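@channel anyone free to eyeball this complex?
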Amino acid sequence: MAGVTKTFPGSEGPAVAPLDLTIPAGELTVLIGPSGCGKTTTLRMINRLVEPTAGTITIDGTDIRERSLTELRRGIGYVIQQIGLFPHRTIAQNIATVPKLLGWDKRTTAARVDELAELVGIEREMLRRYPSELSGGQQQRVGVARALAADPPILLMDEPFGAVDPIVRSRLQHELLDLQSRMRKTIVLVTHDIDEAVALGDRVAVLNVGGVLEQVAAPDDLLAEPANEFVAAFLGAERSIKRLALSGVMSLHLDPGPVVDRRASDAEARQALERGGLDWLAVLDGDRFLGWVAAADLDGRPIADLQPEVLRARVEPTATLREALEVILTSHTSTALVVDADGTYHGAVTLEAIREGLAR
Amino acid sequence: MIGASEPTNVWQWLGDSSQRTVSGSIPEQLWATLWHSLLAFAIAAAIAIPIAAWLAHRRRAELISGWIVNIGRVIPTITLLGLFVLISLRNGYGFEPWPIVGALALLALPPLFANTYTAVREASPDAVAAARAVGLTETQVLTRVELPLAAPLIVAAGRVTLTQVVATEALGALFAGAGLGIYVRFGFASDDIQQIQAGALLVAGTAMAVDAVLWAGTRLLLPRWGPTPPGAGRGRQPLDLTTIQPQGGTP
Amino acid sequence: MSDATARRRWVAWALVAAAAIGALAWAVARTRGLDEQTQATNPIFRWEYLLVRERTPEELWARTREHLELTVVPVVLGTVLSGVLAALVLRFRVLQGTVFTLAGVLYTIPSLALFGILSTYVSNWTSAVAALTTYTLLIITRNIVAGIDGVSPAALDAADGLGMGRRQRLLAVELPLATPVILTGIRVATVTTVGLVGISKVIQLGGLASYVFDGFNRDYSTLIILGSASMVLLAVVLDLALRGVERLLTPWARRAGAR
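replying in thread with the prediction:
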């Protein structure tokens, strides 16, 4: 799949202004903007629930108008905020909607339903129930399963987590990311929640009222360099804080940190202490992290004779800057060491390093 | 018929008063129809509206209020008329007018009750809450807020119910009562097609005329928030016509 | 709330059933004591008419059949016609006002007048069926339209988005979801028609209402009560039967309750 290109000089008033947008295959693209920005309209034009007034939308280089309406839609998963489960059909029947439309045989359909139930975390016994017997979060999972039933390469999601409470929402968001890491579908997701957009999107497209595309960028770039006042205002005042959640510590230029080898002498340790400007030293054995020693404990003996303390001022290499900052703010060392699970030392994160990282 | 010349169409029959020496004149039967109907309606309204309004205000008897229409629906008017005539005769009150008026009153009860109940219950909860908040007593809430808000629907229900009562009054003639239905009955009894047709026209025409007059009247009386207010707000229920039986129909 | 409502409904039905069984038991007990004396008095209801007179069962059955026929045929015809009218309204929304107003006008024509006029042109049976059919149109058409309009927009959006065609959407989503409302319309129309059939006595039909009129003409209270009771019973039985059908056809509504 080469990607989706669409251009529509919209003339429905200012519902969606002429819009050019390429949606890369296998990525999750978020459409975001204030009410009336035409984000939902844009989404619904992709499966032709709304016909563009002008312009063309192509998928894999094929104009979507060349395929029959139903064929097109059966090949695109669709999830909406109100979920829209069919109340008169059981969960299994709901999930099997598209396979049935496509004329799959019963056994294949049933197997697929079981597979999807497992994938989205719906218990087997729920399959025979009706939608009204499920909680909102469960219903939304069924909605996603139904959209994925025929394994469409594209998934459209219109505020999929808008109707559930914040706790369930964040769980569903994580589940979606997890699913996406396995499926690599081309997902277009509409939301008005900037945190959701930043958390979920590989790329975020910010739309202004009237369907004016203000900026398309990866979340981090968006937060780092808003293209204009509107985007900046929409992202809110805490852009830097939001960005912290997006970058991993390994993306920083890691400081070697106030480290000293366990074989070092007292004098070498004092030099290292001076260099680091802290009251603490990290003790290494080669590239392995042993623990911390305090400046006050340096009494002239070689480092090897001291007992390094194991403090919590360390983060895994997969940690986000936000987690690193948390460690920095709450530790005595004002530094977060990046140490992976088997004890290999990668470097140190300091406030200064984070600031530099954000300034990039 | 005794008349010198058999009428050949409805209009001749209507124009020839000699045709009605036995059945009674049209104005006479029209008057009977109207006063039977009005009396029955007044009795039903006097019973149904206050009770329904109070019950709806207290949110009591919701199930029963829903069932009243159902119950009314399964008891045919014919049944009521037959039984009332029976009771009336056994107690020496004759064919006229109590059995008819009684049956018509019972016929009018369910739609008046059900629609009043719905109208009051659905009166804007915000307005009711506001009224309580500023210290109106429960009676005042009902009479000064809920009833005025419910009035358009109650009036609409009253209009359609009264029209229905007028139309149903014709059935009284089948049980030896007075009223415009008598021409249809006499027509069938003597295979007089002109009389059947004329009678049918009179019954239908009267019902429609009454409906038109009532419609115009309610328009004038409730100019500001008439039966179907423009931009109907929250809790404004349209009249459920099916709570009311077809004319000359059941309860 | 719905649980309590359902329970109270069952209690109500249990009471009705108990009353019916009680009445029957009392009637059977009464017939044991039939003697010369009761023949001589003028009771308000002579049980021997119902339980002893040889012709009664056959006659009662014939009249019930006529009543049923005059109820079922118009309701079926009315449902078909209403389906057509509703389809027109749903397809061409501009027609909605006109169709409903027309059906409303038909609904308000006095039945005595309608039977009268029609019977001077066509056969009695045809007039009865035609007249009774017209009274079902408003209720059923309106409920079909309301039922389909009442289907949640989200379900429709999902149906479209998943690639259902117009037909598939109508058959697989809209009609099933509108079923309770449509069946309610048919039920109300049926019960209403049971009552209206009686008036067709003026054109020599009348079904069970014939008892009421005969009783009136012969000043025989037994017949009036027999006719009245059997008409009410028929209406109640049909009402219950259609409620049963509705429950069978909408299993999802029965099991709802989580929300």
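from a first look: Chains B and A do not touch (no CB pair under 8 Å).
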